Amino acid sequence: MARDGAPPKQVVLVGGSGFVGSNLAYALAQSGDFTPIVLDTNDEKLALRFGGRGKCAFRRCDVLTDGAVLEAAIEEADIVINLVSHVLPKTFLDNPLGVIDVTLHGSMNVINAAVRHKKRLMHFSTSEVYGKTGGSEAPFSEDHSDCTLGPIDNHRWIYSTSKQLLDRIIHAHGLAGDLEYAIVRPFNFVGPLMDWLDEGDGAEDAEVPRVFASFMSALLHERAMQLVDGGKSRRCFTFIDDATSALIHILRDPEGARNQIFNIGNPGNETTIAELAELMRGIYAQEAGTGRPIEIKDVPAEQFYGSGYEDCDRRMPDIGKITALGWQPQVDLQETFERSMRFCVDNASALGVAVSREAV
Ligand code: UDP
């Protein structure tokens, strides 16, 4: 029974067995107000988060090919959450057409079904939609900031562009009056089950996870942590439990959140990537008790990612809109990485390549 005595609302999380989806499904199940049903191509991370298979409703579904499964789940649901995405910068560079297929076309299948069945939609956009700062120090604002992207040759921006188009399509449905939605823009969420840890075999063609898992694998395998272009870029890292709490605030407030875009991030947790490398190295030495110094070395972006990469120099969220719904981030930078790293150290074998890379 929900807090207000009503039956829990049924929430279908499409693409919900990745890092954010698994943690969100767990938080929804704990809340008492919502019953999660996860649709995805596998349930590995979901099973890890819930402590076993079958503890959270799961239906196998590829959004590009399993239209009937998707349609039936959305028809039954009270709320639809769209998490369908390719989220790794390295994938944007290696497989830009795959990013379009999944992120754009896959998401359109979800959005169109939500419109057809008149279901409330929470859609995952990205802080990457804002692109580069263009030299401004102003935080990114949902309703005022420009989206500043590099040239087409720098195809890193294909993900940002796909997500921006989806935001505009959803917004247009809102204007047409046929969709109730909330769009959320995550600012570097970190925590248990993020990406994967590699086996340390140093394979040349290895995929590259985002910075947290990349540094964590380097520490576990005692090899150099690689700072792309010197690690000058800045990010605000947000602990996943803070993030899921913000998402639940939005779901509990349909009036306050109606047809709005929300940044979700922790402005107090800003760091350069170079400072992050030092922080993680220090925490690791403490947590794992190793005294051996791990090297931190610079690597040119072209060598690390290949051609077509361009970085977001800084991502600072304006969080006025989400804090107006009563949410505040609680977990500072040190604790964010201590908790995330402790989970990796304790679960290294379960988090290795055994966890499918499709599940990130
Ligand atoms: N980065 C790095 N070393 C790595 C992985 C990433 O220096 O092993 C940098 C990357 O160039 C970017 C920042 O870390 O400046 C964050 O990258 P991530 O892949 O986590 O995602 P982003 O925040 O860019 O979406």
Automatic annotation (TrEMBL):
InterPro entries: Epimerase_deHydtase (IPR001509), Lipid_A_modif_metabolic_enz (IPR050177), NAD(P)-bd_dom_sf (IPR036291). It comes from the Bacteria. It comes from Shimia haliotis. Residues 11-265 form the NAD-dependent epimerase/dehydratase domain. This is UDP-apiose/xylose synthase. PANTHER family: BIFUNCTIONAL POLYMYXIN RESISTANCE PROTEIN ARNA, UDP-D-APIOSE_UDP-D-XYLOSE SYNTHASE 2.
